[in-house]
Write a structure and sequence with these properties.
Length: 337
């Protein structure tokens, strides 16, 4: 038997992975039945589908925290996603979990995120009375919107991990729980880096009590937190931090919410971004006939107009949203042909 075929890989998972790992052969399956791939496991196949989809490519031009920053080294939603995937894979490999499942969840977790980061998400939440959330939208992308409305037909375990990656979620696999933590580890560390680069914070302002536990550099923090999780979770059917690290970790997260995520100069363009989203939303709610064909078809399939307009806006990149706003509301030069 070829050592690279799917059946061999599936059997190797039972001998090489932790008893708590999710095995590809035991997946709860896809919404629509498919012939399996000869070479790749189902989770490898899901990873590849996400990597090649249009929503993944658009993440390169969506805000992480800093709206329209001057500089090439600030994180975008795509670089955040890649950092989450790297951290999650490291933890999963060390714990002998299913790295392919972990990576698929990590790469797909933010596919439904709005332009302008959480600013855009909060506007759509407000406009829909709390019905919109980026994790539910990410699931909608992979189930309904990608692939010309056919979705990516991913396995249950990947879809569950995408839906449940926020703090309030409860992933059904350890691999999903790894991504849930890796998401926070990534943004806490890279947002400190970006805030210092953007002079929103100085290194001296970071809470010393947290740094004494987590580390004084980004590399030290990443290494220390990951090693703590691996040490505390090894041989257990759970993913956890030690009490000391968890307390410092969430204290640092709270510090960032207070000094970076809310009311800092990093958010000075937030009001303009909110206006862009709100006015585009209200325009298309009244002018559904001007939506692209694919979105109008969703109306004929029974989706509400609020949902379809959210689908369209959430799929926009920052620059697409700005250009759409300009096209809709700025006067154009008039001339005779």
């Amino acid at each position: 038997m070829c050592m690279t075929d799917r059946l061999t890989r599936e059997q190797l998972e039972f001998t090489q992975l932790s008893p708590f790992a999710t095995k590809s052969e035991q997946t709860k399956g896809r919404i629509r039945l498919e012939e399996p791939c000869n070479l790749r496991t189902d989770f490898q196949r899901d990873r590849d589908r996400i990597l090649h989809c249009k929503a993944f490519r658009r993440l390169a031009h969506k805000t992480q925290v800093f709206i329209s920053p001057e500089g090439d080294h600030y994180r975008t939603r795509l670089t955040h996603t890649l950092e989450v995937a790297q951290i999650a894979r490291t933890i999963s490999r060390a714990l002998s979990l299913n790295e392919d499942l972990t990576e698929a969840i990590a790469l797909g977790h933010d596919l439904g995120h709005t332009p302008f980061g959480h600013t855009g998400e909060h506007v759509l939440q407000e406009l829909t009375n709390g019905k919109f959330s980026h994790n539910k939208q990410s699931l909608r992308v992979v189930e309904m919107l990608e692939n010309s409305g056919q979705g990516l037909n991913l396995t249950f375990e990947v879809r569950d991990g995408i839906l449940n990656h926020p703090t309030s979620g409860s992933p059904c696999t350890l691999e999903g729980k790894v991504v849930q933590l890796a998401d926070k580890i990534a943004y806490i560390n890279h947002d400190i880096d970006d805030a210092i680069r953007g002079k929103v914070l100085s290194p001296d302002e970071l809470p010393k009590a947290c740094l004494n536990v987590l580390g004084y550099t980004s590399g030290a923090r990443l290494s220390g937190i990951i090693q703590d999780i691996v040490h505390e979770s090894d041989g257990k059917n759970c993913i956890m931090m030690s009490d000391k690290v968890r307390e410092a970790f969430y204290d640092m997260r709270e510090f960032l919410f207070k000094h970076v995520y809310v009311g800092s100069v990093a958010k000075e363009q937030e009001g303009k971004a909110q206006r862009v989203i709100k006015e585009i939303y209200h325009y298309y709610i009244e002018e559904l006939k001007n939506l692209p064909d694919g979105y109008r078809r969703r109306l004929n399939m029974g989706d509400s107009k609020e949902q379809v307009v959210c689908d369209y806006i959430a799929g926009m990149t920052d620059r697409y949203a700005i250009n759409a706003y300009r096209d809709l509301f700025f006067p154009k030069s008039w001339h005779i042909y």
